[in-house]
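## Example record

The block below lists the input lines for one assembly entry, exactly as stored, with component labels intact.
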Amino acid sequence: MARNRTLPLERGATIGIMGGGQLGRMLAMAAARLGFRTHIYAPAGDNPAFAVAHAHTEAGFDDEAALKAFAGSCDVITYEWENVPVKACDLIDGICPVRPKPDVLRVSQDRVAEKTYISGLRIPVPDFHPVASLGELGEAVSHIGRPAVLKTRRFGYDGKGQARIKDGTDLAAAFAEIGEQPAILEAFVPFEREVSVIAARDATGTIACFDIAENVHENGILRSSTIPAKLKPRTATQGRHIAATLLDALDYVGVIGVEMFLSVKGGEESLMVNEIAPRVHNSGHWTEAACHVPQFEQHIRAITGWPLGDTRRHSDCVMENLLGDEIEATRGLTGIPGAVVHDYGKSEVRAGRKMGHVTRLKLRK
Amino acid sequence: MARNRTLPLERGATIGIMGGGQLGRMLAMAAARLGFRTHIYAPAGDNPAFAVAHAHTEAGFDDEAALKAFAGSCDVITYEWENVPVKACDLIDGICPVRPKPDVLRVSQDRVAEKTYISGLRIPVPDFHPVASLGELGEAVSHIGRPAVLKTRRFGYDGKGQARIKDGTDLAAAFAEIGEQPAILEAFVPFEREVSVIAARDATGTIACFDIAENVHENGILRSSTIPAKLKPRTATQGRHIAATLLDALDYVGVIGVEMFLSVKGGEESLMVNEIAPRVHNSGHWTEAACHVPQFEQHIRAITGWPLGDTRRHSDCVMENLLGDEIEATRGLTGIPGAVVHDYGKSEVRAGRKMGHVTRLKLRK
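Predicted structure tokens for the full assembly:
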């Protein structure tokens, strides 16, 4: 079947999504509301996105035949998981456009490449040093000082693959803790707060940012996002400017999550980028409850060439993740006025697993 | 598999939906957001609900084996179409609870039974008279007077199966126009405005009403709903009271749409019930854009025994239906700040067919 993949896509076009988790699920529902079809591609597992999509392919990211068939069935393809192999994206991109483009993954999947790229744009990042061996770790510590954080270059998320290096920490033990993998040593930032900017850019270069969220992590996992973040207006402008600079430099199309550290020194606030997530982001889930166009629809609009939506929020709010068996609380939470509950429909409840979230809106009188 | 169908249902329970149109589709997505599974049952056709449901059965409402298998796979069953045969519902109800209960359909599917029931609750309805033959039509006209509206007792929707009887209208022609079917003659109400109350009742008798919508119909099809309706506070209270009286009398569980005529005489407003729709209702689609808990989620909450949601709206708004090829306008509409677009994903565009809707929110500064 001949496909017309020029932007803007028409209603009824098929959006491919790589990854079958909750982000894919929420993207699929947003796409359906705009009249698009969806096709989810994900390896075998508990893939909650399958249940709300028009079609799905259960296959590995190394299955070239399956990838090609998938690409042939779609009009645009995106990903909900930042660790989709670049090789798979490159293969697909030759058949059907992948947005954001695979080059973005080349930057974001390697912490050293990411930090080098971002600092090259004169955007502040923590001091960092690559670490390939125990010897290099010693060298890195002498450059960066203590305390510092040792992180694997690849596949880190939700605090996994990280070790703190404090005064007295044995370097060999720390390197063993992260599996002696290629790593990065980052200076520990004595931040006041963590914030994030969820922003979108379309193919014509238009950029729209949601209001900045203030995030609390526990054991490396996001617990809550509060909107608006407590920031001086100037700092908020700086945050949006950082996101826009990144989006333009990456020639990015879609929604991005930019996590930042806020430091306060002598009453002066400053921001530093911690990491970028080239996809819809957990700290943007509140937009589903408090904005007219949620981040999921915004992403679909961006990659299909539809107009970006108004990002104003109608309410202040707090989004809390429901981890593991906290999901059993949803029924009770629905009884609270202004609580908007979202259960990802995952079958298996595991400790620490992201099962759902609740956004508590501050209702106006 | 043994099923625990006592209320409240647990997350992961399966909700059966009879009918596969846009209402079923929006119910299925609302159910998914709360972590429920869905199983859609609908006869062959363009069933946009199938694409966002966990399972579907394509079979006729007279296929007893399919109905029984469907009922066996669900924990509660509801309908998105008011003309589902009562016989099918009764059969299913013996296996899996149907909510709202089939008795409600016995009332709502026959305009004479409906008007008789409602007026029996001392709720004002237009004068009416049953018509079984041309002879009875003459008799009815002499009771009711002209102008009047002749409607088939069954299967009327979106203005179908209706004939106006004015001065000079030939009765035989009017009776022929509606196919000489069993009918009802209703006095024409010189209403000022049409309004509707979308209300929910749960199994414990709790009732929650959304704000009253002011509706404009064209050729019997809803064009737009404006919220709030222009009503005196006392009239709005009367409207909510009428809905609550109906819900209690019917021992109703779920969301109902109650369409009313507003008349103004000597500055005094009064309401009269035109008809009831025992399901989520087109004039409640705005709740998806302007309320924290849309009517679709409210219905799912009611039938699963979950708490009813807060019905406050965060914005005034106007919902407009997109009929036929008006659906091609959605992309342009997404460019308007505060416009929330919904495309039902129907493949076939037919003149007058409900293809989607847009809710225009009045944004606060």
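The first helix of chain A runs from residue 22 to 33. Chain A touches chain B through 46 residues (CB under 8 Å).
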